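Below is a filled-in request sheet from our internal design queue. Each sheet records the structural input a requester submitted and the sequence that came back. We keep these sheets so that new team members can see what a complete request looks like end to end.

REQUESTER: design group, bay 2
PRIORITY: normal
MODE: inverse folding
CHAIN LENGTH: 157
BACKBONE (tokenized):
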């Protein structure tokens, strides 16, 4: 194996791991990494050959990536097959999506914990321990929301 092939495989492998961090399947993450590294339009058949998967499994993965707006179908003059490329800001798009999920879930948790805090009676000793846990959880989620807000501000630059 030559140096170029080794570097290519290492880069694709590491970018695949990155994609998997964002809940992409192994096939989706590998295809996205290859499209990103290749930086050129590729057909489903070519992708299948590159990753050793059937055209059907590649098609399913590409369809999922397309729904997430991580790949684009492109037209290639003189070709009748569909070609695909990764979007230019693919990893920023993945991060933005993940941050939005964290933000939405954290805000939901804050709302629920605030409701729980108001619902638990201060005078009932049976609920004293639960009240402390709710209060602690609410504090944690508020801190998390503040961190996510800072991350969102940074990532939107």
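RETURNED SEQUENCE:
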């Amino acid at each position: 194996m030559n140096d170029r092939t080794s570097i290519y495989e290492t880069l694709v492998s590491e970018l695949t791991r990155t994609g998997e961090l964002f809940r992409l399947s192994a096939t989706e993450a590998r295809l996205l990494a290859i499209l990103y590294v290749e930086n050129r339009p590729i057909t489903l058949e070519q992708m299948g050959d590159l990753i050793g998967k059937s055209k059907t499994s590649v098609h399913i993965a590409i369809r999922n990536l397309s729904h997430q707006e991580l790949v684009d179908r492109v037209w290639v003059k003189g070709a009748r097959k569909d070609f695909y490329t990764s979007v230019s800001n693919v990893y920023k798009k993945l991060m933005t999506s993940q941050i939005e999920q964290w933000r939405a879930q954290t805000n939901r948790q804050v709302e629920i914990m605030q409701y729980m805090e108001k619902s638990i009676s201060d005078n009932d000793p049976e609920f004293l321990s639960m009240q402390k846990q709710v209060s602690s959880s609410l504090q944690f989620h508020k801190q998390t929301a503040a961190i996510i807000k800072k991350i969102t501000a940074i990532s939107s630059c």
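SHEET NOTES:
- The chain is about 70% helix and 5% strand.
- Residues 33 and 64 are 15 Å apart (CA to CA).
FILED BY: M.R.
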